[in-house]
Each structure stands twice: as structure tokens, then as C-alpha cells.
Amino acid sequence: MINDNIAALCMVHVADTDQEAYDAAAREGEWFVAKAEDLYSPWQGREVPDSYRFAVDAVQTERVNKTADDHIESGAFAMGSPETVIKTIEKYREAGVDQILCFMQMGNLPHSNIMNSIRLFGKYVIPHFL
């Protein structure tokens, strides 16, 4: 079986305004990225199997010492109002991505913020792409 779909993982947080989303989730997203980088630390300075090379290279060059602002600018984080998140996801679609894996429960983000983000995503973002 061949799956011709292209998927991407994106840290997502939707709030009523860009500032509310940033204030709630930027640090939590940074925390998650740092923890993900830790998963690859055993490979630092060692011979890396070819099947892991892309991930280790990305951690060592593309993700290290990046801030939430860097991740928002690159599209790795979709954080903001529904309109802002739609614009970020549109860029994925333009690049040929047809499945977005939305990681919405990063770090110590309170449950109420996560549920509100899911509600706003379902009410405004998803319908835009239907």
C-alpha cells in the first residue's frame, strides 16, 4: 500500500488574540522543543545510523537555541488568533502538506486553555479548510 499524503507536525495554540495565544503557549512550546531535542542527545558526537540522520541534523542545526518567535516565523508553531493560525496552516497547504498533526497540549498549558484552543480551532480554523 502506498500513502501519497504528506503530513507535518505543528505546535498549535489558538486564542482570541495573537497576544493571548503567545502569552499562554510560547514558553510551553519552547519547553516541548527542548525536551524533544533531549531525545536525540545520546546521538551527539556519535555515529548516527542513516535512518536517524535527518532528525539529528535538524536538532543540531535547525532547532537548537530557537525561540518561540523563531518557531512562529518558520511555521513550526501556529499560535495566535484563528485568523493567524489559518494563515500559518495555509502555508503548509501551499507547500503540499495535506495532513497537519496539531500538537495542542504542550508543557504545562492549563487544561482550560487547551480546551478553548480546541474549541476555537474547531469553530473557525477547520471550517476554513473544508
Automatic annotation (TrEMBL):
Xref: Gene3D superfamilies:
Luciferase-like domain
Locate the coiled-coil region(s) and give their ranges: none
A single Gene Ontology MF term assigned here is:
oxidoreductase activity, acting on paired donors, with incorporation or reduction of molecular oxygen
- Where does the signal sequence lie? none
Which part of the chain is the Luciferase-like domain? 6-99
Pfam families the UniProt entry points to: Bac_luciferase (PF00296)
Which InterPro entries does the entry mention? Luciferase-like_dom, Luciferase-like_sf
Q: Which SUPFAM superfamilies match?
A: Bacterial luciferase-like
**What's the name of the protein?**
Luciferase-like domain-containing protein
Q: Which organism is it from?
A: Geodia barretti (Barrett's horny sponge)
Which lineage ranks, top first, belong to the organism behind this chain? Answer: Eukaryota, Metazoa, Porifera, Demospongiae, Heteroscleromorpha
